[in-house]
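Handout, section 3.2

Students often ask what a structure token actually looks like in practice. Rather than define it abstractly, here is a full record for 2-amino-4-hydroxy-6-hydroxymethyldihydropteridine pyrophosphokinase. The first block is the sequence as you would receive it.
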Amino acid sequence: MKVFIGLGSNLGNKRQNCLNAINLLSSVLSIKQIKCSRFYSSKALTENKDGGPDFINAVISCDAYQGPYELLWGLKFIETQIGRANSGQRWSPRIIDLDILFMDDLILESDRLTIPHNQMHLRDFVLRPLCDLAPSKKHPILGLSCFDLNRVLQISYVTNTMQAE
């Protein structure tokens, strides 16, 4: 199954945190054919005015053989391995954040997991790296490509682009 996973970090060595997560995806979940977008620096999305430290964001595409809940469990395990503590606060600073964006064209909505990610179409720090990997990938609910979703987006959080290693 073709999966797209969003990565973000705004604590510590942000780029290295994302690279560590990618390495663990391969070893912990036996995910294959990993391709990584460029890295993007973006303003923190927060509920208060101070904003918090900037994020580094990227997206990977990969072939995964887990079901959605098994993959979610694996991502949460990797976040814990890298040092993420669950603060219980929405949009708090974090050492690593891993989100399932797409799993082929699966549509899933439950109290634990929503696929496709229910806010991705509102965030250029998700759409721009997605466009690096799959600009023509269509959102299975909205029916628009990643490229078109990014083109019509009215707000920008991205401040800089860097090459992936």
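Discussion prompt for tutorial groups: The chain has one domain: 2-162. How would you have guessed this from the sequence alone?
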